[in-house]
Amino acid sequence: MKRLKKSYSLTVKRGIYQAVIYFPQPDGKRKAKWISLGIREDEKGALKRAKEKFEQIRQEYDGIESADPLTTLFSAYLLEWIKDRRGQRSDTTVDEYERMARRYINPYFDSRGVVLADLTAGDLDDYYSELQKRGLSPASVIKQHAIIRSTLQWARKHRWVRENVADLADKPSKGKPQVEQPYNEAEVAELLKSLAGEPLYIPVLLAAVFGLRRSEALGLRWSAINFEARTFTIDTTVVRQHQDGKLVTTIREGTTKTENSARTLPLNDFAMGQLRHIKERQEHFRDICGDCYDTRYLDFVCVNKLGTLINPDYVSQTFAKQLKKNGLRHIRYHDLRHSCASILYGLGYSLKDIQTWLGHSNYKFTADTYVHTEQGAHAAMAERYGKDLEKLLAG
Question: Can you give the pTM of this predicted structure?
Fold first, then answer.
């Protein structure tokens, strides 16, 4: 069977000139897209102006080989693109893409009925302005721009659109970043004192002393801690993600944010003592609660007094409340990770040591390729920081 090619025709319908684009379909038929040129047949010089506009249409649709982008809502294509990212990027990243699409991007463009082929740079400029008027941070707007641009880049690669209009839009400005000053050692010690005996103490300890991400702290297992070797391994995370339209807490075995995030760190004397005490408390509560104790999470470090795994949202929300309750300076829970990095840097350790300590993928190519962490550097970092905290907590 001879393969049909896309074709064009100029015609008149109800006295108005129309451009018609015929797209070949897999079944051998053709699908027509009608575009009104807005020129009446009985106007003076109508045919000449219609031909000029018709030629513009031909140029605009040159390279678009399917009728789908002419009828598919931009929002629907965006969700399909996000769905295809599963398995290529981390679930946490894809969940964030979907959250932004459903909460911000899709409602805006759906209300305007924008199809993929009709999306313009002006539409994106208007959208970014709307987000900024609503008070979204520059960082959030930039993230959405990056998602939209990647979506359209994929569409261009597969010849759904002629160009990536996100490249023509005014990229949102980063603006002046609003960064909380990380806690210093004395503030970390004061924070730990204020949380003594609280379930939140454990994830705060892990974030402040070892720079663990929230998902890493909640995913830490007792079986990953080697008290004899004085090390612990980060290879499991606990996150919130969408499943069947619901937001649920999920344990991801052997999964971290990046390949570098899976790491083994040394335990200093301070952390060893803290973890042993936490384990003893959990065993004590298990004896007291008896059958009421939640035995599903016996291997997890971050559980409440009834043995139930601590929820990620509980950490962030309760952390802010505890700071206010105890009169402590406001920072985010994630800022404890920055506090850890800043304190270690202040103690004189190299950026390379801190990079690998925190499990970052890189900080620049030269450092990753040519600078190597000296053997024993992590152990020295752990011991020095731990001893400083012991002194402050004893005071």
Answer: 0.61
